[in-house]
Amino acid sequence: MADMRTPLSRVIGLGSAKSGAHHFWLQRVTAAANVPLALFLIASLVALSGADYLTVRAYLAHPLAVIALLALILSGVWHMRLGMQVIIEDYVIAEGLKTLSLLLNIFFSAAIGIACIYAALKIGFGS
Amino acid sequence: MADPRQAARPLSPHLQIYRLTVTMVMSIVHRITGAGLYAGTLLLAWWLVAVASGPDAYAVFEGFIGSWFGRLVLFGYTWALIHHMLGGIRHFIWDFGKGFELRAADLMAWGTVIGSVVLTVLVWIAGYSMMGAL
């Protein structure tokens, strides 16, 4: 290697990428929100066990259920996108594949989020 | 002068070197359940979209979730969700700088395992009794 500088000297003084704390913070905010929201989901699934279509639909159409669902979807999808990002950054080493994986992670999370939000709103507005 | 970066450096030992500890296994399981829940959101999306689409689409969903395989997936999803939740609460305790003593960390790790299994079984007993199957 022609470059005589050590890896340390090349990065020293540049500081961090400045986004780690933000990632950590949002991970914790969404995690805290997910606890009551996931409990709502579990309680709903138990309450709806064996229920027929109209009962399920009527339950999910209640404004409070729609609001809780929307909160769960937004917080849950955000949380899982952040979590999967860390998994990808840990295990996918090749730069191109890593970028592609990070992109697909965002697209998958967005697709799930949008589909769930649309469905929850459609059920709620009863169209 | 030899490039110091080219010298044979000692590598840090990897997983197979260490004796398994419960905290280490729970850290791995926390990540695995997280990845499982990630895939499991497909099920949540399918459920909501099916309800929004109408009785026919919902019947297809019910056909899957009512099958033994669907039940197995849903049971796994329930356990993963509860395990990940308890593991997350453990992380919150650590975030506040508490529970780092070996004994406390071990206790919380075992609590995550046992608590998640017990709560999952209780949730399913409640679900089956709602269906009048118990």
In short:
The complex is a heterodimer of chains A (127) and B (134). Chain A is an all-alpha fold and 127 residues long. Helices cover 80% and strands 0% of the residues of chain A.
Q: Under CATH, the topology of chain A is which?
A: 3 helical TM bundles of succinate and fumarate reductases
Uncertain stretches of 5 or more adjacent residues of chain A: none
Beta content of chain A comes to under 5%
Q: What is the CATH superfamily of chain A?
A: Fumarate reductase/succinate dehydrogenase, transmembrane subunit
Number of domains of chain A: 1
What is the strand content of chain B?
under 5%
Span from first to last CA of chain A? 66 Å
Tally the helices of chain A: what do you get?
A: 5
Short descriptors:
heterodimer; A: mainly alpha; 80% helix; B: mainly alpha; 3 helical TM bundles of succinate and fumarate reductases; 75% helix; elongated
Report what the structure shows.
The complex is a heterodimer of chains A (127) and B (134). By secondary structure, chain A is mainly α. Chain A has helices at 7-11, 20-47, 53-61, 63-91, 95-125. Chain B is an all-alpha fold and 134 residues long. Chain B contains 4 helices and no strands. Chain B has helices at residues 22-53, 55-65, 68-95, 102-130. The radius of gyration of chain B is 21 Å and the shape is elongated. The termini of chain B are far apart. Classes of the chains: A mainly alpha (127), B mainly alpha (134). Chains A and B meet through α2, α3, α4 and α5 of A and α1, α2, α3 and α4 of B.
Topology (SSEs and partners):
The complex is a heterodimer of chains A (127) and B (134).
Chain A: H1 7-11, H2 20-47, H3 53-61, H4 63-91, H5 95-125
Helix pairs in contact in A: 2-4, 3-5, 4-5
Chain B: H1 22-53, H2 55-65, H3 68-95, H4 102-130
Helix pairs in contact in B: 1-2, 1-3, 3-4
